[in-house]
Amino acid sequence: MMINKRLISTVKESKKYIAGNVIFQWCSLLANISMMAVITQLLGKIYMGTAQSGDIIFTGIGALLAIGIRFVCTYLSSKMGYLSSKAVKKTLREKIYSKLLRLGSAYSNDVKTSEVVQVAVEGVEQLETYFGAYLPQFFYSMIAPITLFVVLSFVNFPSALVLLVCVPLIPVAIAAVQTWAKKLLSKYWGQYTALGDTFLENLQGLTTLKVYQADERKQLEMNEEAEKFRKITMKVLTMQLNSITIMDLIAYGGAALGVIMAVTQFSAGHVGLGGCLLIILLAADFFIPMRLLGSFFHIAMNGMAACDKIFKLLDLEEDNTEKVKLENSGDIVCKNLSFSYEKDREILKGIDMSFKKGSFTAIVGESGCGKSTIASLLMGRNKGYSGSVKIGDTELSNIEEKSLMNTITYIGHNSYLFKGTVRENLLMGNPESDDKAMWEVLRKTNLESFLKSEKGLDTKLAEKASNLSGGQCQRLALARALLHNTPVYIFDEATSNIDVESENDIMEQIYCLAKTKTVILISHRLANVEDADNIYVLEDGKVSEMGNHQELLKKKGHYAKLWKSQRDLENLGGDAA
Ligand SMILES: Nc1ncnc2c1ncn2[C@@H]1O[C@H](COP(=O)(O)OP(=O)(O)O)[C@@H](O)[C@H]1O
Ligand SMILES: [Mg+2]
């Protein structure tokens, strides 16, 4: 069925606009019928030789009046269409937006960003035409033939009946097309989002592709996908064209049948010339609304496909448990914590860890052992863990997102800086900070002299801060994090891939923070964790060793081995230099 009740009840406002739209179209139809009636009556009288000058004036006035009414009605019905489109866009986008807010930062567990963008922009656009054009047409295309039938049955019943009976053939044809059109369209949409995905990814990674000279191969891949998309688009267009041809055949064939019937009745003397002409002139009007509905049908199909996607998004399960606010708490305890992104592949396998306020804890381990997974779990980005994670006395999954964000600050290896000024970026950390506070953190992160040589706090950053060096970016990100002033800080490889001076500056601030805050440092470089109060060594999702640097060295286990090999490597580098 091409009317989705849930969709309409989602946008309740649109009902009155749709009704208004239909009513004005109907009034316009009545005006048209009246105009045709007076004109054909006049023609009939002229034919009979009984026309008087009064008749002509009456017909002229009537026709003008009808034209005026039609003009106003057309304007009003398109205005209604516009109003309902507006209501639809506004309502649906608001719903999608607030849904995303409710899903919170974990939304990407369930949907892809590109899909959200497509649904919110294009999907909603599709529904705009669905509400503005298709739905009113749906009702009007039923009312119009019935109205015409009622009027014309007084003129000549058999002709009116023939016309009315032919009209339903159009929806029958549509239904026949629909069954396979639906499959085709869902394939089309799938192809479309897939292409969009690859395109976005390749565009974002273009520099990397160039570096590895993989751009050509990727281009070939994309060409292939684009070709697939072209083929399916052509199929969709062919389908649409064919179904339009079928509908035209039915519409004009039906009108022709009605006309033949009217002429036959006229020659048999069952209807006058005026009546016969009226039927001939209005025959096409039986079919035009339904025919138009047929061409809107594809809009409806697209709308339905988009609607499914929107509801899929709106129906994503939300975490409805009562959320609790956190009171300035810096102690974190994980007990038997397990987590997996996908079924049957556990990443964290029963981890026990604790992070104390005012302590400096490190998590080390080889790449892929699950360090970042722990960090995103703590940030509430990974839902559905088992075991327990308590911040203060509260279980992580019960903590309201906002207060979690006010408790933990995460600094990754490539922090996002926004296009704008340094001040704007710093204010994100804490909207209340004044210039003095900002310069203080900039001094701590050793950015003071650099920025003073530029335009100070008003120094402009390009998109993704591409006009700063990697080390400067990370130091600025740290400055912003310092302003945020939360009880817990997580540094996840925050000093990878940057220059040694910046790394030292950042490490110094981390030690300083650890005096008063809970600091969790994730690093694969063991030199950075030597001074930590406690070090967890992670191996394949499990804690294999723990203790401070000296204790771990004595154990002569995994940590000692890693440390030795890294030291040898760095000394080697030192010797060579
Ligand atoms: N979003 C994700 N979906 C599926 N698997 C993931 C995802 N993120 C990480 N993983 C997998 O989890 C494992 C641990 O990753 P991660 O915690 O990032 O390791 P690291 O210790 O290097 O930070 C890896 O095997 C990785 O493939
Ligand atoms: Mg990592």
Layout: helices, strands, pairs:
Layout: H1 5-10, H2 14-48, H3 53-103, H4 113-155, H5 157-166, H6 169-204, H7 206-211, H8 215-267, H9 273-314, E1 332-339, E2 348-355, E3 360-365, H10 371-378, E4 386-391, E5 394-395, H11 401-405, E6 408-411, E7 420-421, H12 422-429, H13 435-444, H14 448-453, E8 460-461, H15 470-484, E9 488-492, H16 500-514, E10 518-522, E11 534-539, E12 542-547, H17 549-555, H18 558-576
Parallel strand pairs: 3-10, 3-11, 6-9, 9-10
Antiparallel strand pairs: 1-2, 1-4, 4-5, 7-8, 11-12
Magnesium ion binds next to α10.
Descriptive tags:
Rossmann fold, single chain, six-stranded mixed beta sheet, 577 residues, alpha/beta, binds adenosine-5'-diphosphate, ABC transporter transmembrane region fold, binds magnesium ion, elongated, four-stranded antiparallel beta sheet
Characterise this structure.
This protein has helices spanning 5-10, 14-48, 53-103, 113-155, 157-166, 169-204, 206-211, 215-267, 273-314, 371-378, 401-405, 422-429, 435-444, 448-453, 470-484, 500-514, 549-555, 558-576, and strands at residues 332-339, 348-355, 360-365, 386-391, 394-395, 408-411, 420-421, 460-461, 488-492, 518-522, 534-539, 542-547. It folds into two domains: 89-314, ABC transporter transmembrane region fold (Up-down Bundle); 360-369 and 401-533 and 541-576, Rossmann fold (3-Layer(aba) Sandwich). A six-stranded mixed sheet has the order 6-9-10-3-11-12, sandwiched between helices. Strands 2-1-4-5 form a four-stranded antiparallel sheet, covered by helices on one side. Helices cover 65% and strands 10% of the residues. β9, α16 (500-514) and β10 form a beta-alpha-beta unit. It is built from 18 helices and twelve strands. α2 runs antiparallel to α9 (273-314) and α6 packs antiparallel against α8. With 577 residues, the chain is an alpha/beta fold. The protein is elongated and about 120 Å long.
